[in-house]
Each structure stands twice: as structure tokens, then as C-alpha cells.
Amino acid sequence: MIIAANLKTNLTRKQTLEYVNELEDFLNKNNISQEVLVFPAASSLNAHSGKVIIGAQNAYATANGAYTGEIGQDHLDEFGIKTILIGHSERRHILGESQEELVKKFNYYKELGYKIIYCVGEPLDVREAGYEPMIEYISDQYEGIDTNYENLIIAYEPVWAIGTGLTPTLEEIEATHKDLKKKSPAPLLYGGSVKVTNANDVLELQSVDGILVGSAALYVEHFCTMCEYAQKIENKN
């Protein structure tokens, strides 16, 4: 399974280093063989060797250049980072990234062989419009994306559930994942108010290949527990 932590605009460089080191120690001591990724804030990126894979929450589709406030490939190369999060709902809905911009970014980092976690999902008004409009809305977010890219991971995140404490039912997650799996052979993660109290149930769903965790992952002990859940499920199966 794939267990990913999006730290968003949280944790300083020092705090992130402590977080990653504690997580690494836990994975080693408990023989966790799952794929574990951490996406720190840009100013907290650092080189790391071990089980934990460090990724970038965002980068511009360039090596470098006159793009104030952005980071590029050169900045990721400095730390040996080859993993990136693209299309997160907060970048779509708060920062206004268009599908065209996301496709450009996707293709740039695809050509470099990056592991890409590509996020899709729907806001509340679309969810309330009905299941078919919801699936159609999400399907539009696949437009221009190479769904057969070998280093692709897709994360389904219902936008209305992020940071609200609300989550779809397990049956709703399973149904949505089953339909989305028809669109790509890539592993499919669930994200959207995943926390230590519901992570095990979500991970046990047949169509879920892992989780993308936001605010709940800021507590490293909680994130470690989620990694342990995944390991126990794999061992059981």
C-alpha cells in the first residue's frame, strides 16, 4: 500500500527533519514495508535516504527562470527529489490552477520520470448534484493526463471532506473508487479527512490502494499508526 502525508503549509525545516527522522525510525523498528511518502512545505525540503520518500507539494514546469514565488526542477534536484504532488484541490480551488496548467506541469515532470501523485475530486455542490454528474466532473480532471504513465499514482479527494471532519461512507468510497479504477491502471489513494480513527477501515476497502493524509498526518505518531495499519492489513492478506 501507499501511505502519503501532505504537510501543506505546516512545520518548519527543523520540525520537518524531526518528523521524518521519527517516522523513519518507526518504519525500521516495526518492519514496515509499505511505500511511505511525505510532502513537506517547500522551505522544509531536504535530502533524505531511507524508507521515507520525500516529495514536493508543488513546482513550476521549468528547471529555473523568472517565476517569482515558485520553485523548479533545479531546486528539487539539489535534494534528489523525484516525486511531486500535482492537482491538489487547494491548488485547483484556492490558488486557481487550471486543467491546462496542471497538464503542462504533469507533462513536464512526466518527461523527467518523476513519480506523480495526481489528485482528482469534487466540491460539495457537484456531489449534491448526483452521482453521474459527480463522476463526469471528476472525469474532466483526467483530460490531457497520461493515465497509463508508469510512475503515476492517483488520489481521489472529495473536496468537501478535506479539513471538515466529514467523509463519504465506506460504501460511497468503494463505489467511487471502482468507477475511477476503470480510467487508469495506476494505484488509487483515498484522501479527504483521513484520520487515525477511520484510516484502518478505509485501507481495508478492496478498491483502495492507500491514503493521502492531510492535517491528521501532522501528528507523526498518528501517521505512524496509519502506516502500521497498512502493514497489518497486508500481512493478514
Short description:
The chain is 38% helix and 15% strand. The protein is an alpha/beta fold and 237 residues long.
How does this structure look, described?
- The protein is built from nine helices and eight strands.
- Strand 7 (188-191), helix 8 (199-203) and strand 8 form a beta-alpha-beta unit.
- 38% of the residues lie in helices and 15% in strands.
- The model has no long low-confidence stretch (mean pLDDT 96).
- Helix 1 (13-29) packs parallel to helix 9 (220-236).
- It is globular.
- It has helices spanning 13-29, 73-78, 89-93, 99-111, 124-128, 131-140, 170-180, 199-203, 220-236; strands at residues 2-6, 35-39, 52-54, 83-86, 115-120, 152-156, 188-191, 210-213.
- It starts with a strand and ends with a helix.
- The chain has a single domain, classed as Alpha-Beta Barrel (TIM Barrel), CATH 3.20.20.70.
- The chain is an alpha/beta fold.
- An eight-stranded parallel beta sheet has the order 3-2-1-8-7-6-5-4.
- The longest helix is centred in the first third of the chain and has 17 residues, at 13-29.
- Belongs to the triosephosphate isomerase family.
- Its EC number is 5.3.1.1.
